[in-house]
């Protein structure tokens, strides 16, 4: 079984073999001599970090400023072009992980789906966006191999998210105009303010805050000095409160999933230092405490209780009913094109959905589920590829954590936060598609890039066997 899992997650991948046989890879390093003579290219990673930082600084404010999301696309194109330049001037054989392989397969499936799409021109635009996001990932995976740049990028995101959260808290305290019908008009929460901050959508804000909460908790352990730790603690409180008052049920479920995963990973990290008693009881006690605190909060706060119970009210809740009706239409779309889908991108979905929608009242811009959205866009082949990609990302994270546990490197808390954020984002995405919005998609690739940056080099894979033996012994 372990051998099958190794093969599935590409744990034994040997990039060097591909490097030796690849014609494309021969171009890597072709401009290395120029880089050695260029003052700017010698600082290429720092320049790349500044370019990528602009994406995270600007993207959350685009809705409030009334700007087009194409601005993010232009920034991504700039990042992609600079990555190509850096790669041509790079040392050969650096940075390839199993995650890169699965993403290349995902892009290939998307390209085939584009060629078979009934709306090829729109699908091609969707494929271009997929390409830009994947190139953002390879840039982030490269940059985050430097702990200094990794700390810089996470710090930029945390400070920007604090500004976003503070404005959300202000809306909660002083009220905010509801820009859409986000709460069932017949429910007890009809007059409740759902904050949306600069993102103009509470569900989008909630998805934006999930990684912020995870990384701000990690910052409490990594940032040095009293004032930075106080700032990190303040970020945890403000981000968490702001997430609560978005009243986004999917994000709450995702946050709970992320907390459980984080607790399990912290236990794994601490296990070698624990006494026998705590080895047996630390994790059950932590999970029990999570359930108790969550249960008490739901029972004690009426708005949280009503919003949570509405998850189980089926079609009686208007938000649930819209999703159910959209899922029915999406099922018909999938049934007509099950293998390769209709083509990537929301533009194709918007064109095709009206043919299948059950009623004019249930219009939709997406499938309200990243899994259903994947199937409808690039078919069951793409869905299998997505599941494979998620499994490989998670496994790479565990492998990186196993190596960090040997050296007791505190940078492991960034990795734990990234894995927890990944799980939380996927958890929310089960019943929503905010994952496809640029503000969240860029954060997703930041999270995945951080996980990839911790992946151990294949040449030193003997540590894996040692870590496995240690786990079985303990």
Automatic annotation (TrEMBL):
This chain belongs to the protein called Putative bicarbonate transporter, IctB family
Q: Where are the transmembrane segments?
A: 47-65, 71-89, 96-116, 122-140, 152-169, 205-223, 230-247, 253-270, 282-304, 378-400, 412-430, 442-458
UniProt KW Transmembrane keyword: yes
**Span of domain O-antigen ligase-related:** 235-387
Q: Which domain of life is it from?
A: Bacteria
Q: Which InterPro entries match?
A: Inorganic_carbon_transpt (IPR006007), O-antigen_ligase-rel_domated (IPR007016), WaaL-like (IPR051533)
Q: Which NCBIfam families match?
A: 2A73
Classification from the root reads:
Bacteria, Bacillati, Cyanobacteriota, Cyanophyceae, Gomontiellales
Q: Which UniProt keywords apply?
A: Membrane, Transmembrane, Transmembrane helix
Q: Which compartments does it reside in? A: Membrane
Taken from the UniProt entry, a GO cellular component term is: membrane
Bilayer topology term: Multi-pass membrane protein
Task: Tell me any Pfam family this protein matches.
Answer: Wzy_C
């Amino acid at each position: 079984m372990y051998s099958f899992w190794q093969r599935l997650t590409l744990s034994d991948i040997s990039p060097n073999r591909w490097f030796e046989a690849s014609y494309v890879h021969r171009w890597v390093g072709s401009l290395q001599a120029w880089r050695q003579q260029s003052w700017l290219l010698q600082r290429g990673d720092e320049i790349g970090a500044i370019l990528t930082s602009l994406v995270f600084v600007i993207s959350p404010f685009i809705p409030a400023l009334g700007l087009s999301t194409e601005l993010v696309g232009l920034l991504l194109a700039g990042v992609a072009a600079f990555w190509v330049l850096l790669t041509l001037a790079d040392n050969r054989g650096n940075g390839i992980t199993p995650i890169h392989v699965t993403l290349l397969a995902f892009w290939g499936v998307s390209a085939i789906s584009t060629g078979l799409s009934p709306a090829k021109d729109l699908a091609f635009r969707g494929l271009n966006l997929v390409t830009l996001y994947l190139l953002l990932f390879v840039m982030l995976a490269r940059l985050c191999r430097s702990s200094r740049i990794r700390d810089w990028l996470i710090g930029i995101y945390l400070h920007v998210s604090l500004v976003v959260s503070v404005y959300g808290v202000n809306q909660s305290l002083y009220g905010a105009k509801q820009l859409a019908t986000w709460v069932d008009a017949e429910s007890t929460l009809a007059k409740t303010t759902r904050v949306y901050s600069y993102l103009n959508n509470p569900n989008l804000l909630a998805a934006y805050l999930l990684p912020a909460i995870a990384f701000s908790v990690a910052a409490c352990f990594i940032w040095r000095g009293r004032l930075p730790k106080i700032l990190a603690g303040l970020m945890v409180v403000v981000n968490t409160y702001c997430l609560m008052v978005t009243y986004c049920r999917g994000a709450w479920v995702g946050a709970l999933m992320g907390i459980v995963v984080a607790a399990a990973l912290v236990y794994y990290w601490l296990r070698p230092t624990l006494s026998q008693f705590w080895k047996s009881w630390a994790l059950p006690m932590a999970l029990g405490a999570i359930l108790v605190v969550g249960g008490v909060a739901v029972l004690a706060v009426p708005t949280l209780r009503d919003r949570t119970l509405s998850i189980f009210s089926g079609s009686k809740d208007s938000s649930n009913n819209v999703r159910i009706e959209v899922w029915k239409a999406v099922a018909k779309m999938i049934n007509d094109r099950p293998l390769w889908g209709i083509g990537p991108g929301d533009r194709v979905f918007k064109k095709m959905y009206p043919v299948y929608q059950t009623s004019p009242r249930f219009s939709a811009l997406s499938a309200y589920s990243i899994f259903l959205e994947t199937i409808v866009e690039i078919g069951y082949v793409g869905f299998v590829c997505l599941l494979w990609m998620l499994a490989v990302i998670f496994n790479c994270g565990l492998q990186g954590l196993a190596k960090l546990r040997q050296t007791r490197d505190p940078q492991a808390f960034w990795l734990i936060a990234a894995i927890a954020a990944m799980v939380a984002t996927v958890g929310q995405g089960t019943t929503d598609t905010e994952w496809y919005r640029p503000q969240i998609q860029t954060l997703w690739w930041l999270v995945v890039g951080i996980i990839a940056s911790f992946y151990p080099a294949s040449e030193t894979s003997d540590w894996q066997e040692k870590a496995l033996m240690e786990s079985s012994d303990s």
